[in-house]
Amino acid sequence: MSAEEFVIPPAPRPALIVEGSSKRFPVRRLYCIGRNYAAHAIEMGHDPDREPPFFFQKNPDNIRTDGIFPMPAISEDVQYEVEMVVALKSGGHNIPIEQANDCIFGYGLGLDMTRRDLQAEMKKMGRPWEIGKAFEHSAPMGPVVPFDQIGHLSSGEISLSINGVTVQTGDLAQMIWKTPEIISVLSRYFTLCAGDVIMTGTPAGVGPIQAGDQMRASLAGVEDLTIQVTDGI
């Protein structure tokens, strides 16, 4: 449909930078898996055993790719969570685990920024997490690297430093639910499609940030992602 067919101008479609290309990866939906590293589950007060995976969503337009994270309003405890990002080139319903990797376009780095105090309030009241997770600019992301350049990532160090000090470190091999399993299980609940992006969970070490901090995320095989924290807008 053309813009003239809408009663108001349609919003631009969010997109990720693609490493080595002038083209962009258009984002359809943004899924996240919770507590997917045992050590992080423990630090958040949960049993690290392999419980059934659970998912939540951020909004696609929460993604920001310019290396800036403006501090949000109405929170006294904004925290970082470094994660591997998986971008899908195809999808389906009830995808078998052995076919899940065929859906992957590439991999990248992202931060699941969280208003932890607001999330905690929602947990206490048994309410959804969106107010703590799906706020503006809450998903800073770097470029997607096509899998045919780096292979499928199932192991390798992932880490985050704040102002040069390492605060999170882990290995993709420590994920409780591996990427093919995440895709397969997620496809039971939603019909996955090309353009869907999945954040695969964070290792232990989450904590607060403040304006002026610089975050630097690293993942073996992917270019580092540097994010500057600024005052809110």
TrEMBL record:
Question: Is Metal-binding among this UniProt entry's keywords?
Answer: yes
**Gene3D superfamilies in the cross-refs:** Fumarylacetoacetase-like, C-terminal domain (3.90.850.10)
Top-level lineage group: Bacteria
Q: Please state every residue range assigned to the domain named Fumarylacetoacetase-like C-terminal.
A: 30-229
Q: Do you know which SUPFAM superfamilies this protein is assigned to?
A: FAH
Keywords per UniProt: Metal-binding
List the InterPro entries. Fumarylacetoacetase-like_C, Fumarylacetoacetase_C_sf
PANTHER family, alphabetized: ACYLPYRUVASE (PTHR11820), FLUTATHIONE S-TRANSFERASE (PTHR11820:SF90)
Protein name in UniProt: Fumarylacetoacetase
